[in-house]
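Worked Example 4.2. Consider the chain below.
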Amino acid sequence: MTWRVLAALGFLLWCTALSCGLGPAPHEPSVELPPLSPNQARIILYMVVAPQIAGYCPYLTVDNEPVGKLCLGTFLYVDQSPGAHQVGVGIDKRLSAFGEQGITEPVDLKIGPGGTAYVQVQVLAISLTAKVLLTREAAANGLRDISSLRPAKR
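Applying the procedure from the previous section yields the following structure tokens:
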């Protein structure tokens, strides 16, 4: 490896360590979500773990439609019709400064009327690739996790 690659990796590691030590950004008190219609289903996407690529905020999709950008300490929700839905990650063409974006396995959800599904988003740096992990969480864990987060800007 050249000294430039080593310097870039060292800087990335330093930034990651610094961002992990800072913890989540200051936030507003927990936000009250609007009531969910009984004939709708809600998907809540959130990020509580500091990404290994400092400042990287993936673009998320539901059923291949963009729903927003998610950064550390934020969440967003999407109300849909009940049934089967798929959460995925859109390709970020601006990521070339870090390497490339790895393929993300989508999360398949089946949500009944009035139901809510929680999906935690994590970003890992693997070699020169950003890898986004999507994990469905139990309702109790999701509620606990989003209680200290702020809404994402869409």
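Residues 99 and 127 are 8 Å apart (CA to CA). The longest strand covers residues 116-126. Compare this with Example 4.1 before moving on.
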